[in-house]
Specification:
By secondary structure, the chain is of the alpha/beta class. The protein has 4 domains: about 5-60; about 120-210 and about 415-480, Ribonuclease H-like superfamily/Ribonuclease H (Nucleotidyltransferase, domain 5, 2-Layer Sandwich), CATH 3.30.420; about 210-345; about 355-410, no CATH class. The chain has 21 helices and 5 strands. Strands 3-2-1-4-5 form a 5-stranded mixed beta sheet, with helices on both faces. The longest helix has about 35 residues, at about 210-245.
């Protein structure tokens, strides 16, 4: 029901009710203004909500957040937010009505600044680079990424292009023109990357990533173990059938294709193959470690030639297991053996680089001393974990040579884990935006290169500081010319 009272009268009535009225005030107002008590209580509740909304808006207006650009970019990068998510956060947290067009223009301008910054990166010394593709939703196209192995610094990242040698060649030429040279490269063995490296005549310094090979070996081992479990379940079923027949009961299900004795023989062979592959894969892990001790008074560590001989013998043993496996498993073991043989020359590139330094250390300190240093290095998680801490337990006469040896082992390039870490950063943004522009990738690269490690071996250092290209601890937003939020 619409009452004929004026706005002023209603404000007066609500004010009296909100000012902790004495007993009977509501009844008196109802009689005086001819208003029901329910209407009075409803007006009072409306007045309370209006006051709260007005005060809330006033507080949001008085709150002085950082610049709009800083808020937008922080939400975009740190929280993996979409443009609409950024719009909602600004509205709910800061009371700011920002259009999607404004947010898009802010991100576009920041992306252009980030691309300029990324193109100005320089390296005074050759760097070990990890190369890899991250496939996009576009068929046959992928994001190409070049990451520093030692520091994790992003040197280059480009939006989806065709995955071929020409695309990689152009990217590597651009890096060379920019002043970024590589001492070595590492990848998962993609054909396009190898074609590009051969084009620029740097194929001889390309290391094959060992962890991808370990992953293939683990997949084959898992399939063998599943095959063993399947055949073991069939053996149990045959035993149950045999027990029923022994009791004079009728067999259940379809007739078995093999006898109990044949199934036991098949399971025995499969178990032998699975255990053999498991043992050989474990030995492969050991032979591809940074250091491989050798229990000989004259030889402290295996060199690359000895490692290659051991791995070739290992592969011969792997081939001998093929006839004992089932038809399906034979193809898996042959595939693993073929991949390891093809990758063997580049797989041991890191070991060939260690040969001269390890031999020199053996001449200066002796084989037993180098073996002791290798023992300590393999247990650095307990004794170290940094080279400086390991050296504190080394005899003073050994320290100069030991430091060179330990530093060389610490910077040995065997895997492309650095670029896989970068993929894990890009992946959430891909899930939100579906595709990433060059500007967005550059923003992520600038943020990553200035990100301070909160813990671990590199605590308190950013990838830029670990590379040694700069000692600045500036925030990534400040580098791009934006004001930072107050801490």
């Amino acid at each position: 029901m619409i009452h004929c009272s004026t706005i002023e009268e209603r404000v007066h009535m609500v004010s009296l009710m909100l000012a902790q009225p004495a007993h009977g005030v509501v009844s008196q107002l109802s009689r005086t203004y001819q208003v029901s008590r329910q209407s009075l209580y409803r007006w009072r509740d409306t007045g309370v909500r209006a006051l709260e909304e007005a005060l809330r808006q006033q507080m949001m207006t008085k709150k002085q957040p950082g610049s709009l650009q800083t808020l937008v970019l922080t939400l975009l990068i740190e929280t993996h937010a979409s443009y609409r998510g950024i719009q909602t956060c600004l509205k709910n947290l800061h009371g700011m009505d920002v259009s999607l067009g404004t947010i898009t223009s802010i991100v576009k301008e920041a992306g252009q600044r980030a691309q300029t910054w990324l193109s100005q990166q320089r390296s005074e010394t050759p760097r070990p680079l990890a190369l890899d593709e991250q496939y996009s939703s576009q068929r046959g196209k992928a994001y190409l990424n070049v990451i520093d192995v030692d520091s994790g610094q992003v040197w280059a990242t480009v939006p989806p292009v065709a995955v071929d040698g020409e695309s990689w060649t152009l990217l590597l030429w651009e890096l060379q023109d920019q002043g970024i040279n590589h001492s070595c490269t590492v990848s998962d063995g993609g054909r396009a990357i190898e074609d590009a490296l051969s084009q620029i005549q740097r194929e001889e310094s390309h290391q094959r990533d060992v962890w991808h090979l370990f992953h293939v070996a683990a997949q084959v081992q898992g399939r063998l173990d599943r095959a063993v479990r399947t055949e073991h379940d069939r053996l149990l079923a045959l035993q149950r059938q045999a027990e029923r027949e022994a009791r004079g009961q009728k067999a259940r299900g379809r007739p078995a294709k093999t006898t109990l004795a044949q199934q036991k023989a098949l399971l025995f062979d499969l178990n032998r193959v699975a255990d053999g592959v498991r043992y050989l894969c474990q030995q492969l892990h050991c032979l591809l470690e940074v250091v491989v001790p050798w229990f000989d008074q004259s030889v402290a560590l295996l060199n690359s030639h000895q490692r290659q001989g051991e791995i070739e013998a290992l592969l011969d043993l792997l081939d001998e297991l093929v006839p004992s496996a089932t038809t399906a498993m034979q193809g898996q073991i042959q595939m693993l053996s073929k991949q390891l043989r093809v990758a063997l020359p580049r797989m041991l590139l890191f070991a060939r680089r260690l040969d001269a330094i390890q031999e020199q250390a053996c001449q200066q300190l002796g084989a037993e001393a180098v073996a002791l240093l290798a023992w300590a290095w393999m247990r650095r998680a307990i004794l170290g974990p940094t080279t400086k801490e390991l050296l504190q337990g080394v005899a003073p006469a050994w320290r100069a040579t030991a430091q060179i040896l330990l530093d060389t082992w610490a910077h040995t390039v065997r895997a492309s884990s650095a670029v896989e870490n970068w993929h894990s950063i890009v992946r959430p943004h891909l899930a939100v935006h579906r595709t990433l522009s060059a500007g967005m990738l550059a923003l992520l690269a600038v943020w990553r290169n200035h990100q301070i490690a909160p813990r671990g071996l590199h605590e308190g250092l950013s990838p830029l500081q670990r590379t040694g290209t700069t000692s600045s601890d500036l925030n990534w937003l400040a580098v791009l010319g934006y004001s930072c939020l107050a801490a």
